[in-house]
Each structure stands twice: as structure tokens, then as C-alpha cells.
Write a structure and sequence with these properties.
By secondary structure, the protein is mainly alpha-helical. It has 4 helices and no strands. Helix 1 packs antiparallel against helix 2, helix 2 packs parallel to helix 4 and helix 3 packs across helix 4.
């Protein structure tokens, strides 16, 4: 039971670091992109199977696209956009996509 709980703790720690870093660094988009790049590299070093890479890059590409279109048409706006969306949004989507999969996998093993 200890190993699945450690893996779950790792995924939850990543999630909480995303929230905290976004809350503190949203006004410094380049720093935030660098931090998210570091987290992405660590995650992809640990989880680099074909399905993990596919999920990360699908989230990286299609998550922001799903936000860019409605934002372009005025549904919402971002405080520091590069082009309609902030530059840190694509890596965030990739991290969240892969992180949620890993969290769900760990919850399944805790039963």
C-alpha cells in the first residue's frame, strides 16, 4: 500500500505546485513558462511511455485551442495573453492532462 500512496502523493504535489505557482507567478509569464517547462520535463522523465507522451502533447495542443477560440470571440479574457491566451497555458494543459491520468491510476490501485 505504501508505493501507490507515494505515487499519489507525487501527483498531488505536482497539482498543488501548479496552483501555487500560477497564483504567485501569473504576472511573470516567462518565469511561469520556465517553471512549467521544468515540471513537464520531470513528469516526462518519470512517465514517458507512448500513451503518456500522446496524452501530454494532446493536452498541450488541444486544451489551449479549446480556450483560444471562445476567448477570441469574447467569452473571456486573460490578464497577460501572448496571443489570446497566455504562453504558459499549453504546458499547463499538458501537465494537467498527464497528471490527472496518473492520479486516477493511483486512486484505482488504492482500493
Amino acid at each position: 500500500m505504501r508505493k501507490p500512496l507515494q505515487k499519489l502523493t507525487y501527483a498531488v504535489t505536482i497539482y498543488l505546485s501548479l496552483i501555487l505557482s500560477l497564483s504567485l507567478l501569473w504576472g511573470s509569464p516567462l518565469v511561469l513558462v520556465g517553471f512549467y517547462g521544468l515540471i513537464s520535463a520531470l513528469m516526462l522523465y518519470k512517465w514517458h511511455g507512448v500513451s503518456d507522451l500522446c496524452l501530454y502533447f494532446t493536452g498541450f495542443a488541444f486544451g489551449p485551442l479549446g480556450e483560444m477560440v471562445p476567448a477570441y470571440f469574447g467569452a473571456w479574457t486573460y490578464a497577460e495573453p501572448s496571443y489570446v491566451i497566455p504562453m504558459w497555458l499549453p504546458p499547463l494543459w499538458g501537465i494537467v492532462a498527464l497528471g490527472l491520468k496518473k492520479q486516477c491510476d493511483q486512486f484505482r490501485t488504492l482500493r
